[in-house]
Design a protein that fits this description.
The longest helix is centred in the N-terminal third of the chain and has 36 residues. This protein has one domain. Helix 1 runs parallel beside helix 7, helix 12 runs antiparallel to helix 14 and helix 14 runs parallel beside helix 17. The chain is mainly α.
Length: about 450
């Protein structure tokens, strides 16, 4: 019998840290092999190939972000059921999550593949990189089932308090991914399709490892009865998942609009933005991980009716967010050119990327708090305001990029990101205050 982990009892900092570090290491390793893809493609195939791969980042965020948003929303319900102690409802929520996920994979794969070329043309992808972008995108989107399976298994495991198994899965799949990149690109001389195939295979491997762990947990051993359709259960799952998925998609649309403006500036800027996007994903990693830990922590404690622990968790999460912000600033600002040069080759591309990196690094505390408060509100079962914050991010990005692009050129992309984070933080901060006050009133247990 495999263990699950109860986050509703015990010292809050200790529980959060025990849950947080495996998630951080998991996400870090994901970024490592994502960065390895970028470095291998950039150094092995050149800046244009890197631009072709990076040009897809906003589109993959749209499709894969919608998928991961759905899985994250499903996990909120699973965490709440686990916290409440209702085993039958827990098994049912997992079973129906599997059914919904299967339908989702089919729809998103078909939609992604059919819309790939029109979207790449819509965001003004340069002719020099269009074919490589299409090839890479078709493989990544064609392997969406592997990505979805990994995200689903990871979401369920984390909802049950297990953040270690996804870490072990990523350790193995990251090593495999990097090895395959080197073999396919440097050894066999493939193009961007080699990097895409390595990514899909590695995702499938990590999904298989997580699935094997789930099969050994007696608490969630499913039977045929658990898969019976239940309208109320479906509504609960979709109520928590669709807003989160729409939020991710709205953020992606805003990023795609920015990508379109950057592409209009030329391939040099497209390549610089590709490298910057990879680094930004790395910079926000600690803050997003704090948010991921609070999502499960808030979900379990909401289900257990313990709002005082949620508030304590947010306070501790804020301390972690500030600490990681200071560490990131110290690591990025003095070495921005060196970081850019690790992926890029041309002097002008490196210069543009370094300016962007310094601007976004200085504003990272804002997005750290966005992750913290947004995930807490979602874990408490209130996904609508976080969805609206996705709209706010898109609304803020567009006028900023329009205003600054003629005046600051490539730097406008950085200022658009900062403005989006500020707008999102305002909404999610207000939502957290309102919902915590409501819980204080309803439970009368917070002095």
């Amino acid at each position: 019998m495999e263990k699950t982990y109860d986050l509703t009892n015990g010292k809050v900092p200790k529980l959060i840290l025990r849950f947080f570090f495996p998630i951080l290491l998991t996400n870090l390793l994901q970024q490592v092999y994502s960065m390895a893809d970028t470095v291998i493609v950039g150094k092995g195939l050149g800046d244009r190939a890197l631009g072709a791969v990076g040009n897809l980042s906003s589109l993959t965020l749209l499709v894969i972000g919608f998928c991961t948003g759905m899985m994250g929303g499903f996990s909120i319900v699973v965490a709440q059921r686990f916290g409440s102690g209702d085993r039958r409802a827990l098994r049912q929520s997992i079973a129906l999550t599997v059914k919904l996920s299967a339908v989702l994979c089919v729809v998103l794969t078909a939609a992604g593949i059919l819309s790939l070329r029109p979207i790449l043309l819509l965001i003004r992808t340069g002719e020099q990189i269009l074919d490589d972008s299409l090839l890479y995108g078709y493989i990544i989107l064609g392997g969406l089932t592997a990505t979805a399976a990994y995200n689903l298994c990871t979401a369920i495991l984390r909802a049950l308090g297990d953040s270690r198994t996804p870490f072990f899965a990523i350790v193995i799949s990251s090593a495999v991914n990097i090895a395959l990149d080197c073999i396919l690109i440097f050894g066999l001389g493939t193009g961007v399709e080699g990097a895409a195939a390595a990514t899909v295979f590695s995702q499938a491997l990590s999904a298989f490892i997580c699935y094997r762990k789930l099969r050994r947990i007696d608490l969630i051993r499913l039977c045929r009865e658990d898969f019976r359709n239940d309208a109320a259960a479906y509504r609960e799952l979709l109520k928590n998942s669709l807003p989160t998925a729409y939020m991710n998609s709205l953020i992606a649309v805003g990023c795609m609009i920015v990508q379109g403006f950057i592409n209009h500036l030329g391939v040099v800027c497209t390549s610089a933005y590709a490298a910057c996007s990879r680094y930004l994903n790395l910079f926000i990693l600690p803050g997003s991980t704090v948010g991921a830990a609070l999502l499960t922590f808030a979900g379990q404690n909401y289900g257990a009716g313990k709002p005082e622990r949620i508030r304590e968790g947010v306070r501790f999460g804020a301390v972690l967010s500030v600490l990681f912000y200071l560490l990131t600033i110290a690591a990025v600002c003095p070495f921005a050119e060196t970081l850019a040069g690790a992926m890029l080759n041309e002097t002008e591309t490196i210069r543009l990327a370094a300016v962007y990196l310094r601007i976004v690094a200085a504003a990272l505390l804002t997005v750290n708090f966005v992750f913290l408060l947004r995930n807490c509100v979602q874990g408490m079962g209130h996904p609508l305001i976080p969805m609206c914050s996705g709209i706010a991010e898109m609304v803020f990005r567009i006028p900023i990029i329009l205003y600054f692009l003629p005046r600051a050129g490539f730097q406008a992309a950085a200022w658009a990101d900062v403005a989006a984070w500020v707008g999102s933080l305002a909404l999610n901060g207000a939502a957290y205050v309102v919902y915590m006050r409501r819980m204080r009133r309803d439970h009368c247990c917070i002095p």
